Amino acid sequence: MIKLSHVDKQYQNHHALNDVSVEFPDHQTTVILGPSGAGKSTLLRAINLLERPQSGTLEIGDSKLDYAQDLSNKEILQMRRQTAMVFQSWNLFPNLTILENITEGPIYVKGVSRATAEKKAHQLLQQVGLDDVANRYPNQLSGGQQQRVSICRALALDTSFILFDEPTSALDPELEAQILRVLQDLAKQGHSMIVVTHNMDFARKVADQIVFVEDGQIEFAGASEQFFNQPTKRIQEFLAAMKF
């Protein structure tokens, strides 16, 4: 489980996260929703310390840290090793092959043997229908293919949680559907995932839990069923605004 308690993140006069407390259960898919600029990505990035809140605590499994304290590189690395992140713009290493992109982390961060890492990489690429491109370079793949590779790269690290920061926002609708199907399959397999997205259909079909963020605060955290079937007035307005 991931637990954030009384987390504050402020940029000058903007309160990106305001006394946020929320839990993310193991083996569930939590979808973070909210209007643009609400603090969704800041919340996600605080979990792997890409954003550093001024106060509050973070717990991942048996590990805990206080954001207000000075943290050593060892402490930061210990927390980061428990999560993997998939970004909006896949961020693959352009000078490495697809296979190398997936095996770099397990080999050099986790100390896995090259043979074991490559075997795992091929298995993951097979799951997403891309094992035939293992020896190509990122610029030889479409955006949807590159994002599937970035998901394989995250899975190869065998972390407790995978974090997705709007993983389909840079893709056209057809490619977006490909990625969302991959995420749906991962959810069915019981992976622990936290996904920031604007796709309501995905949230409705796949999310076990919804976290609704607005103005840096958690306005709802609970079962997906309740969010969509028993919405508050504000959530009704949000859902209505997402429709044409």
From TrEMBL:
Places the protein is found: Cell membrane
Topology term for the membrane: Peripheral membrane protein
Keyword set, alphabetical order: Amino-acid transport, ATP-binding, Cell membrane, Membrane, Nucleotide-binding, Transport
Domain ABC transporter: 2-240
Annotated SMART domains: AAA (SM00382)
One Gene Ontology CC term in the entry: plasma membrane
UniProt cross-references to InterPro entries, sorted A to Z: AAA+_ATPase (IPR003593), ABC_ATPase_HisP-typ (IPR030679), ABC_transporter-like_ATP-bd (IPR003439), ABC_transporter-like_CS (IPR017871), MetN_ABC_transporter-like (IPR050086), P-loop_NTPase (IPR027417)
Keyword Transport on entry: yes
Coiled coil stretches, renumbered: none
Gene Ontology MF terms in the entry: ABC-type amino acid transporter activity; ATP binding; ATP hydrolysis activity
Principal location: membrane
PANTHER family recorded: AMINO ACID IMPORT ATP-BINDING PROTEIN, GLUTAMATE_ASPARTATE IMPORT ATP-BINDING PROTEIN GLTL
Homology family: Belongs to the ABC transporter superfamily.
Protein name per the record: Glutamate ABC transporter, ATP-binding protein GluA
Organism: Limosilactobacillus coleohominis 101-4-CHN
Gene: gluA
